[in-house]
Amino acid sequence: LGLGYRYNGDSLKVNFGGAYEWTKKKADETYPDAFNFTKNYKTFLPNAMLQYNISKQSNLRINYRASSNLPSISQLQNVIDNSDPTQLSSGNPDLKQSNQHSLSFRYSSLDSSFTKTFFAMASATFANDYIGNSVVTAGRDTVVDNISLLSNSRLTRPANIDGYLSLNTFFSYGFPVNLIKTNLNLHTFLNYSKTPGLINNEKNFSDSKSASLGVTFASNVSESVDFNISSNTSY
Question: Residue 40: beta bridge partners?
Answer without folding.
Answer: 24
